[in-house]
Specification:
- The structure is a single chain.
- By secondary structure, this protein is an alpha/beta fold.
- It has one domain: TIM Barrel.
- Helices cover 31% and strands 21% of the residues.
- It contains eight helices and ten strands.
- Strands 1, 2, 3, 4, 5, 6, 7, 8, 9 and 10 form a ten-stranded mixed β-sheet that branches.
- It is globular, with a radius of gyration of 17 Å.
């Protein structure tokens, strides 16, 4: 199976819409934080879904989609919505981050999950690449979207990664922050173009890097220019705190 070979996401007849394809869940046995964006530093639980509709060269979670390097039978399982709600409810941590891969590929099955999490007193953040507009049932109180459109410099064609209608739907929801990975001044210029064209706000910039040293160096390249544009800046806390360990 290759990275680009399509993988069916349809549940079997006996599963209905009660199961999601999950890469990993973490944050209970070994506590952690949301590492990026507006909630950076908040205690968090993570539900990482498997599968993605992009194939970014610089992706740091290729085990959710790149079947030329990883075995999907080892890297993913089907888990019930009820089981995921019970898992999250066993922890007092309020924030549940649903990430990927690209979680909104499975959004029809995410609706009951989100309803269950909200009923359990949780708040939910989606980490999404912004190519799939959110279902109305997900645009509700207690849910936020951290939308991270991928630039060409991230190793993906923008004809695939920039979907104007989806970005504009997130902007119209008033429940989204737009978080761009950047490493150069040219990246900041491209972010400005996209933000102006699609009326994206608020804009967050996150330095590219998977080691503290690279993130620090990139931060110093970008920080003054980001501040001058009156944008927000986020680090990658999990990289600095936990050396980008999986499941942290």
């Amino acid at each position: 199976m290759t990275a680009s070979e399509p993988v069916s996401l349809e549940p079997t007849a006996e599963e209905g819409e009660s199961r999601l394809i999950v890469a990993e869940c973490f944050g209970i046995d070994v506590p952690t934080f949301q590492g990026e964006g507006p909630s950076c530093g908040h205690p968090a639980l993570f539900i990482r879904l498997s599968r993605c509709n992009l194939t970014c060269a610089k992706c740091d979670t290729k085990y959710t989609w790149d079947w030329s390097q990883f075995d999907p039978r080892k890297e993913s399982t089907k888990r019930s919505v009820a089981g995921l709600v019970a898992w999250a409810s066993s922890s007092p941590v309020e924030l549940v981050v649903i990430t990927g891969g690209e979680p909104l590929i499975q959004q029809a099955r995410l609706v009951p999950l989100v309803r269950g999490l909200l009923a359990a007193g949780k708040r939910v953040e989606f980490e999404t690449n912004g190519t799939i507009a959110p279902a109305p049932e997900l645009v509700v109180d207690g849910v936020r979207f951290n939308v991270s459109p991928k630039l060409a410099s991230f190793g993906v064609r923008e004809t695939k990664s920039i979907v104007p209608a989806a970005l504009e739907a997130f902007a119209a929801s008033e429940r989204a922050a737009f978080k761009f990975v950047a490493s150069t001044m040219a990246d900041l210029d491209r972010i400005a173009e996209l933000a102006d064209t699609h009326r994206l706000a608020p804009v967050w910039v996150m330095p590219e890097g998977t080691t503290p040293e690279v993130i620090t160096a990139t931060t110093r390249v970008l920080a003054d220019a980001v501040a001058a544009r009156r944008w927000y800046f986020t680090t990658r806390l999990h990289v600095s705190a936990f050396a980008d360990a999986r499941g942290r």
